From TrEMBL:
This is Short-chain dehydrogenase. Pfam families: adh_short_C2. GO terms for molecular function: oxidoreductase activity, acting on the CH-OH group of donors, NAD or NADP as acceptor. Residues 8-191 form the Ketoreductase domain. The lineage of its organism: Bacteria, Bacillati, Actinomycetota, Actinomycetes, Streptosporangiales. Gene3D superfamilies: NAD(P)-binding Rossmann-like Domain. It comes from Streptosporangium minutum. InterPro entries: KR_dom (IPR057326), NAD(P)-bd_dom_sf (IPR036291), Sc_DH/Rdtase_CS (IPR020904), SDR_fam (IPR002347). Belongs to the short-chain dehydrogenases/reductases (SDR) family. GO terms for biological process: fatty acid elongation. SMART domains: PKS_KR. Keywords: Oxidoreductase.
Amino acid sequence: MELKLTGKKALVTGGSRGIGRGIVLGLARAGADVVTCYRTESEAVTSLARELKEIGGNHQLVKADVSDPAEVDALVEDCRTSLGSLDVVVHNAGVISHVPFAELPVEEWRRVVENNLGGPYLVTQRALPLLSAGASIIFIGSRVATVGIPLRSHYTATKAGLVGLTRSLAKELGPRGLRVNVVAPGPIETEEPAPAEVRERYQKMIPLGRLGTPEDVAGVVAFLASDLSRFVNGETINVDGGI
């Protein structure tokens, strides 16, 4: 039993940094052809393009804002042109901020909701015509969806919304042979390391004694993208070290 993605065609939103970058590189190394999008030009985009070229395969980086319907349409058209169809869609793009609920401006509520929940809605809907039977839709949620966290009520609400969206779509799209699942990371250390005191606090809370890495999340995404998970549908898989 092997995890192989050779011949799979994937779209990963928000793939230039952090967890998204780990997912893009993990899928590419497993043999998938990957289209990913980013919002702003940066060295992270340039270095990702370089790494994907070294891995080999048919990979594309596209500038797109997933909260903008026109830009999502253009992104999906890029997928159609370069890949023809899609076997995997990973919704990673999102935004976050830390604001006391009593002071949370309606503009910031809308920004977070439109990106974290509206983006997955737009991309999934627009990509449906490209999804082949057996395709896997994967939402990157968060462990906070079920436990909550102060100052992030708007962010937590969107991640909880992805769980409901997943359960409904799993039932609605299942007859088409499409699977829909959530991967919910816990504390993950990316290229922007957490402060020492934060890392120490989480290490005491996590039975495995460490923060997660983007590669830890990417491994679960690769499983859900593969045929090994062909009977996994409507689930939320926590990747949190047992916190």
